[in-house]
Design goal:
By secondary structure, the chain is an alpha/beta fold. Helix content is about 30%, strand content about 25%. It is globular, with a radius of gyration of 15 Å. α4 runs parallel beside α5. Strands 3-2-1-4-5-7-6 form a 7-stranded mixed sheet, sandwiched between helices.
């Protein structure tokens, strides 16, 4: 078993998300996190997913259909999550920052919107809710976005949230960074 950022994110989410919960995949991409969350919440739970690319939405819907999972998938920015969920209503949330795997590298997450979406997500999390961030960096805007997100994470209220950052120090070529966030207090 290879330990990578996806493994860390899924392991983190398994600790907090249970059958019947409500989760958000803030960056649907190819649908893997959406399907993973559907598996965790089971038939009695609810998952919604967002992406700004039609290709990502179509890919996610196809994967969900193939696996027999049901989720709501929206062609919408993750900065609009509060239009679909109320404050302190979400048990788990996942983000992948960067670009769509196999997609156009010119279309990628941007630091201002990413930070705004994380802030929105923090408000949506329930007490003991969890968020997993996978930060893929490099390329034209990736380092700038990574640096901005990492600086923002230090400003999150430590009385309300626990923030854990995990990096692969001995891997070459800018390995992705995992961040786990848990809401400790409303």
């Amino acid at each position: 078993m290879k330990i990578n950022t996806v493994y860390l994110a899924q392991d983190w989410m398994k600790r907090f998300v249970k059958e019947g919960n409500f989760c958000i995949d803030a960056t649907a991409g190819r649908g893997n996190d959406t399907a993973f969350l559907c598996e965790l919440v089971g038939a009695t739970g609810k998952v919604i997913a967002f992406d700004i690319q039609e290709e990502a939405v179509a890919s996610t819907k196809a994967l969900l259909q193939e696996k027999g999972y049901n989720a709501e998938v929206y062609l919408e920015s993750h900065t609009k999550m509060a239009h679909y969920a109320s404050e302190a209503s979400v048990d788990g949330m996942m983000f992948n920052f960067g670009y769509l795997p196999g997609g156009d590298h010119q279309i990628c997450t941007q630091k201002e919107e990413s930070i705004r979406a994380i802030e929105e997500g923090l408000r949506l999390l329930k007490l003991d809710g969890a968020m997993a961030l996978c930060i893929y960096h490099g390329g034209d805007t990736g380092f700038e976005e990574k640096d901005a997100i990492m600086a923002y994470l230090k400003t999150i209220d430590s009385k309300k949230y626990t923030v854990i950052v995990s990096e692969f120090y001995n891997r070459p070529n800018c390995p992705p960074i995992f961040v786990g966030i848990k809401r400790d207090k409303i």
